[in-house]
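Fill in residues.
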């Protein structure tokens, strides 16, 4: 146990080595994360190999987490790592008690409040919040704007780079930091690399959409995560420029996603859900399911807190299926 990513026999993972002195002779503070309860704490480097979690394994309290970069300017790399997290968490969850925000601060050596403020500042740049003129977030930095601009101009490049930078910090790989199922990948080689790149981009889109909608289907309100899909309004293959555009997405349950994909469902530009009348005719023994699917006809979408769907893309989808 001597580098980021290593895990001891008590399931405590080494998040980051620091140069701050610990309380043992010659010991430095290492930051550990409990893989059982996600608690993050400082440990003497000398104890890390056998350390137990202060919270769920009743070990002694941890040492304070060093914040040695507090007060220093944020680098481009730090901004991009923060942006990676901004992409994954719902707007309403950007606060100092969120374990993911606490982890970001620990990785970067910054105070939790500073990490939380950085994420809120990204939200400031979100077109939706700009339109609503959210106040109190005026004190953003140039670095945030630059990363936001890069993301808007080259989202695929930034999605990959943010995953790479975070993985390098954590001693992990990009498959792990983007929750890609490794069983699903070809063996190592050129083909695998291409597939991983594609999956990282898809995962970025999925996380962005699901978190924008607060992990809730925008038609039914369903919150069961395994059943939620980040649907493209205009399909991936058809519109390269809008592949990772979060305004080209809807968070849907698997059945409405399929109906939307097949043109059996569409959404009017004023966000009213429409279902094809011929769906009803197609019923047989599956009557109940079809009636449930149809019962959302005429309802208004449950809109996200940011990245509202683009009405012109909704119209394009409807038009493609000859609905308008
Ligand atoms: Zn624990």
């Amino acid at each position: 146990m001597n580098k980021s990513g290593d895990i001891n026999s008590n399931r405590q993972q080494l998040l980051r080595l620091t140069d701050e002195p610990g309380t043992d002779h010659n010991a430095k503070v290492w930051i550990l994360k409990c893989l059982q309860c996600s608690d993050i704490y400082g440990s003497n480097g000398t104890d890390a190999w056998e350390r137990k979690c202060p919270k769920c394994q009743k070990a002694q309290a941890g040492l304070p987490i060093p914040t040695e970069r507090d007060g220093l300017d944020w680098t481009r790399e730090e901004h991009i790592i923060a942006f990676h997290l901004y992409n994954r968490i719902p707007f309403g969850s950007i606060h100092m008690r969120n374990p993911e925000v606490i982890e970001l601060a620990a990785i970067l050596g910054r105070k939790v409040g500073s990490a939380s403020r950085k994420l809120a500042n990204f939200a400031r740049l979100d077109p939706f919040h700009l339109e609503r003129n959210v106040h109190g977030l005026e004190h953003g930095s140039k670095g945030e704007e630059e990363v936001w601009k890069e993301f808007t101009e080259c989202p695929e490049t930034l999605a990959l780079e943010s995953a790479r930078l975070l993985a390098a910090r954590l001693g992990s790989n990009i498959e792990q930091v983007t929750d890609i199922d490794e069983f699903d990948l070809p063996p190592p080689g050129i083909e695998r690399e291409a597939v991983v790149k594609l999956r990282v981009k898809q995962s970025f889109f999925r996380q962005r959409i699901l978190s924008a909608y607060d992990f809730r289907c925008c038609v039914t309100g369903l919150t069961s995560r395994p059943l939620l899909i980040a649907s493209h309004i205009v399909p991936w293959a058809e519109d390269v420029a809008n592949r990772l555009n979060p305004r080209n997405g809807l968070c849907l349950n698997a059945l409405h996603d399929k109906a939307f994909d097949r043109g059996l469902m569409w959404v009017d530009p004023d966000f009213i859900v429409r279902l094809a009348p011929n769906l009803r005719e197609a019923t047989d023994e599956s009557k109940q399911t079809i009636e449930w699917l149809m019962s959302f006809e005429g309802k208004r979408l449950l809109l996200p807190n940011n990245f509202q769907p683009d009405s012109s893309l909704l119209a394009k989808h409807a038009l493609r299926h000859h609905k308008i």
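The longest helix spans residues 190-212.
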